[in-house]
Amino acid sequence: MVQFVPSTSHPVHLFAENRNLLMENIYQDATPEDWSPSKLSKLLAWGTHLFTASGAIWGLLSILAISSHQWLLAFTWMAASVFVDSFDGLLARRVRVKAVLPEFDGALLDNMIDFLNYVFVPAFFLYEADILPPQYALVGAVLILLASSYQFCQDDAKTDDHYFKGFPSYWNIMVYYMFILSLDGWINLSITVLLTALVFVPIKYVYPSRTKLYQKLTMALAGIWGIINIIILTQYPVFDRWLVWASLLFAVYYCGLSLYSTLKNRSA
Q1: Which of 61, 110, 188, 253 is 20 to 30 A from 32, alpha carbon to alpha carbon?
Q2: How far is CA 161 from each of CA 113, 202, 227, rounded to the nearest angstrom?
């Protein structure tokens, strides 16, 4: 039974206190028999899952573009998948997909799509794009696949305080910079090996849309980063090199904030 709390507070405060208590009791005591989602709620929840699932389409289109060596088109579809991943979690929380559709595992769907777009597609790009020494192209792709397979199956890959544990499979960003900067193949291989090793190092990496520490600043800088890289791709192959270095400043900020967070938590 819902119990209201007597109070000597201002009537407005009294109403707010009792309203909050009412909502708490409703959600604590509610059972499937007490509450049933509306048709609109179900429609919004299924629409959100469909939005997440659309990432599979962008992944397939990326693979087809890579197979045809249409690199810019591949990055276009890869960017589309990142756009979906940036907003589907927010939508899922907003429409309460877990409560509305408890029988559907949206988290599993999200992980499947993420592995496709953040791991398999970049690994295939790395193999096909001639950005590693030819004799090590397959090795580099396999390293990414195996390391990320391990990470995706860890219970604490995403921590309770909303960080990624270990390098968070930003392989699409890695291959993007390797392609844009036209780095030497051996340098690219060294970077691939280093980032593969960092998957197993328990550094806490910022989860841009969920980590509370400097979240607004991080999201604003991420937005600017995205705009800069869109400009670079539209200008490619003739683009201002300073734009690339400007975009890399966000990577420096991201790594610095992640390292700071890790050290701060360890000293706490």
Answers
A1: 110
A2: 23, 14, 28
Distances (CA, A) of 224 to 41, 169, 227, 251: 34, 21, 5, 12
Read off the pLDDT of residues 51-68 as tens digits, 9 standing for 90 and up: 999 999 999 999 999 999
Backbone φ and ψ for 102, nearest 5 degrees, come out as -65, -20
Residue 30: what pLDDT? 41
| Number of Cβ atoms within 10 Å of the Cβ of 164 | 22
How far apart CA 231 and CA 225 sit, in angstroms, is: 10
Closest CA to 110 of 49, 199, 163, 171: 49
Q: How do residues 172-230 score in pLDDT, each as one tens digit?
A: 999 999 999 999 999 999 999 999 999 999 999 999 989 999 999 999 999 999 999 99
Which tokens hold the place of 139?
């090795």
Q: How many CB atoms lie within 10 A of CB 163?
A: 22
Percent of the residues in the chain that have a pLDDT greater than 90, as a whole number: 82
Nearest to 214 by CA among 162, 167, 172, 176: 162
Nearest one of 160, 147, 169, 172 to 229, comparing CA atoms: 172
